Every structure is written in C-alpha cells, then in structure tokens.
Amino acid sequence: MLTFAGSTVFLDNNKTRTFFKTDLSLILNTVVCNRCRLLQKQFSARNWIREDGKQAREVTPQPNFVVFLKLETPSNVKITVIGGGSFGTAMSKVFGMKGYQVCLLVRDPNIVAGINQDRRNPKYLREFTLPDSVCATSDVESALEDTQLVVHALPVQVSREVLEKVSPFIPTAVPVLSTSKGLEVTSHKFMFELLQETVSNSGNKRPLAFLSGPSFAKEIMQELPTAVVVACESLETASLIANMLSSSIFKVFTTTDFIGVEVAGALKNIIAIAAGMAEGMGLGMNAIAGLVTRGCSEMRRVAEFLGGSSVTLSGLSGVGDTFLTCFGPLSRNRTVGYRLGKGETLSEILKTSQEVAEGVATAKAVVEWLPAVLNTTYTRALVRFPILLSVAPILEGRLTPEEGMQQLMSMPPTVED
C-alpha cells in the first residue's frame, strides 16, 4: 500500500467519502478531514514572530487530506510534468523508466510532436530517447486529468502565471512536486509560497514537496548515478515520492525541512555566478574555493534565520548542489559568471543563452529581499552577506567583477562563522 499522508491531525468531526475510479486496478480513497488542526509546525519567509532567538512564522493550521493509493503496478499511475525544458524532460525519463505513465505539459507544438513521434525532445537534450511511457501535450485539461502526481519544472519567474492557469485542473489532494529554484522578482517569494498561493490555497489544500540536490539534467538523461533530496512537511509524502523516483541510478533522500531546501536552492545560484566570475578572471582555485566556502556560510545563516536547519545546508540540497553549480561545466549560472569575468556584459550573455540561469533574477531580488527580512539597510546587510549582495551590482553594470573581488578582499578581519 502506497500512502500520501500529511501531518497527524485531531478530528472534531471525521467524515469520509470514498471515490472509486472506473479502472478497478486503481482505487483512490480520499479521507476528507473537517475542522481539523495540524500537529506540525510550519515555517515560512513571511510575517515573522520571535521564537528561541530566531525569526520564524507560525502558519495558520489548514485542513489536511490523507490519500491512500492501492497500486498493482506503476503503469496504472499517471504523472504530469509541467515544463518541457531540460529538467522537465529529465524528470519524465526518471519516472518513465520506472514504468509510470508520464504526460509532459508543454506549450511548444514542435516539442509535443517530437516527443510523441520520435521519443525525443527536439529542443532540449535531443540526443536522448525517452521511454515509451512518456507522452506530451499542450492541452492542460487532458494533461492533468486523473493524474496522481504533478511535477512542476518551470523557471520561477514564469511559474505564477502557469500555476494559476493549471490549478483548477489539478485533481483534489493530488501532491505537487516542485523542482524550480529561486525567488520571484516581483514578490520576493520562494516557490513554496507561490505554490501555497496558487495550487494549494484556502480552497484546495494539497501536499507540496520540493526536489533539490546536485542533478544536472544531461547526466540524468545519460543514466549516470545521481542523488537528490525531496522535502515535504509530511515525511510520509516525501517518502512516497522518494520511492516513486528511486532506482539503481537515482537515489532519493527525504527531509521535512523544506525551508532549508528552498533557501539553498535559490541562493546557491548566486554563489555560482560569483564563482564563475572568479574563474573567468583567472584568480585561481584558492580564490574560488574561498569564495564558495564563504558563500555557503552566508547561505546557511540566511536559512537558519528563516527556520531552516544547518543539517540541510550541509547536505545534498545545500553544499552538494552548490558545489555542482559552482564547479560543474554544465552549470548555466557558473557559465554566466565565467563570461562576465571574461569581460562580456549581461545583455550579450543573455542574447546567446538558450536556457534560463535562475541566479540572475534571484541575485537582483535578494538585494531588496534580504535587507527587508533582516530589518536593516542594504549597507549593513552587505557587511554580513557581502557575496550574496555583491553579485547584482555587477550584473547591472554598476560594479566590475574586479571591483567586486577587491571589495571582498578589503573587508576587515572577522571571526569565522
């Protein structure tokens, strides 16, 4: 028996309804919990309260749905992947290799035709063949009909618009797994907050999970060993999704610390741009290693301030993903930084880039978001977080990479933290 299970609840009035699908090989029992309260404590990056000397937020308890799935075989389970880019394509292969029925929801009709006719994505990673159980469509309703899991694999900056459009078509209580990393520029919100406002709002609460870790899409498609982590406030839900993904080449760990996973996933891209600049300027491995290490320290302190765990930041979604993004040759964010270090402007780089480097938008958002969260000025925040806050001025042309590095090296000695 596979189980989507949320937090433990107290029920004042336990009413259940059972919904039977026409396909008797798959029976979906949905327990609708009325007037229940969660035992778990959740944290968010909004509306802070003081707790144990840290800033945190206690989220208003919401109704909880516990979904039990009786599955005879993965071929009876439909999974919808939103986004036909590199990582969406890679995720469809991971699930497809396990035998799940995967439907890629994409806008480009050429990608739809390429996947359905040739088993290849003609735009991204086109040298790789997808499993026969993977199909594609541009029709939102058919893509989400009877799905048991939704995987969101779009850039953060376009996520809100798409999620608002697809939300009415996602079946009740079906979990959403996000692979997107970054801060929305307009609202300064993480993906878990965007999902809470769009697909898991007050009218339809559903489990939300987040996948992160060192995982280049191309290496996943090459079937090279990969290890990631799935975060969800419900460990049972995280474990179920981990079991669905896990194979001999794709190892999945679990955690309930979605705050730490989300913060690391966003901020590591800024560090990677900085590391790329150092490499492009030819500053040597000493400088790059020092820059990345201090960047990880800044990232950890932000995560802990928001309620995340230092354990998460030292794990796959923290230093693991940071190392890959900073040193891996396939890293889009590192490449942007490298070209900046070589003297190109950001506009020149973006004109010749096919895929999105999330760190560019995130770096600009963090300049406004982080001082506000810390309740201080940019100048004072810069003393504590010089790497995270120095990348945006370089991207905008207000500072050269050389000037940025000189500022870092000119800072007075301090105690390592």
Automatic annotation (TrEMBL):
Residues 78-237 form the Glycerol-3-phosphate dehydrogenase NAD-dependent N-terminal domain. It is found in: Glycosome. The active site is at K268. Coiled coil: none annotated. GO terms for molecular function: glycerol-3-phosphate dehydrogenase (NAD+) activity; NAD binding. Residues 257-405 form the Glycerol-3-phosphate dehydrogenase NAD-dependent C-terminal domain. Keywords: Glycosome, NAD, Oxidoreductase. One of its GO terms (biological process) is carbohydrate metabolic process. It catalyses: sn-glycerol 3-phosphate + NAD(+) = dihydroxyacetone phosphate + NADH + H(+). It comes from the Eukaryota. Its EC number is 1.1.1.8. It holds the Pfam family NAD_Gly3P_dh_C. Its main location: other. It is an enzyme of class 1 (oxidoreductase). NAD(+) binds at G83, G84, G85, S86, F87, G88, A217, R332. Substrate binds at K181, R332, N333. GO terms for cellular component: cytosol; glycosome. PANTHER family: GLYCEROL-3-PHOSPHATE DEHYDROGENASE (PTHR11728), GLYCEROL-3-PHOSPHATE DEHYDROGENASE [NAD(+)] 2, CHLOROPLASTIC (PTHR11728:SF1). Belongs to the NAD-dependent glycerol-3-phosphate dehydrogenase family. This is Glycerol-3-phosphate dehydrogenase [NAD(+)].
